[in-house]
Fold each of these.
Amino acid sequence: MGINPKILTRAEIVLIAILALAAFSLILTRYVNPDFVPLFNLKRLQEKVFLNTKPSPESKVEYMTFLLNVRLDEIKYILSRKKYDYLLSTSLRYSTLAGETTELIIANNLKDQAEPLKNQFLYHKQILHDLYVSYPKNTDNVEYKYLEDDINYLDIYLNKLSRLK
């Protein structure tokens, strides 16, 4: 007597397809940058879902500091490819995330998380400064001001974190 393989139901096939698509999109969006808008939006949605699954403020801060590095890499990518039209939105995502991370630390009095974030901000400030200095300023592009804004925001956030006692 042979073993009859179970015939998959339509719901099981749909579920398998959805899971396979989700796994594929996770792999595909890992290295997507802001200039590839449809997949980048999917990447941002995945990041938001991951952030909302974090059970504690500490784990949220840890994930957000990881994302800060990703956002900085996106700024570097945009500038290296001279895709200046994307610099405003990319820069705003970076400074917003930096502010949200700062506010989360302050709101939850996570003093042990403040010093590492300050160090990260100082490191990022130097990179942003270097990008600002190397940005071509003799053109019609004035997007370099967004880099200056990011640096100024980091100064504000560093000040806020320094006052955490």
Note: The helical segments are 10-29, 37-52, 57-80, 87-107, 111-134, 144-162.
Amino acid sequence: MQAKWPVEQDPLPRWLEELEPHASDVRRDLEREQTNAQLQELEALLEELPGIFERKFEQRLQPVLDQQQLLIAENERLRAQVERLMPQPGEVRLRFPERRPPIPRRALPLPPLLRVIRGGRCDVGLLPTAEWEDPTHK
């Protein structure tokens, strides 16, 4: 039968003392492996980062590209319309005289006689509307 020693008085077995440096080495190796695994994960994330930025950029750029395509199509449509409206060589186009600018509305009401002559319209200016109203006409 073996004698029981109290734990405080029990000397460490020799084999345990010999394993202590080996345990420290194993602990260090495990920490290195964990650090290496973490570094590998970080490196993998860093390798994915350019792709992530590129996808994000493309997502933000897509509406601008769509708008550009719409503008290009509208530009082509307008250019074709201008080309159709341009005179061809040898083509004769008539020009009509420009319309007279609109007569400004009078701020003052017309005298009653002019109002009757103009058919009760206040918006007609003082220009003659018929030959018989023209004072220079004989």
Note: The chain has a mean pLDDT of 77.
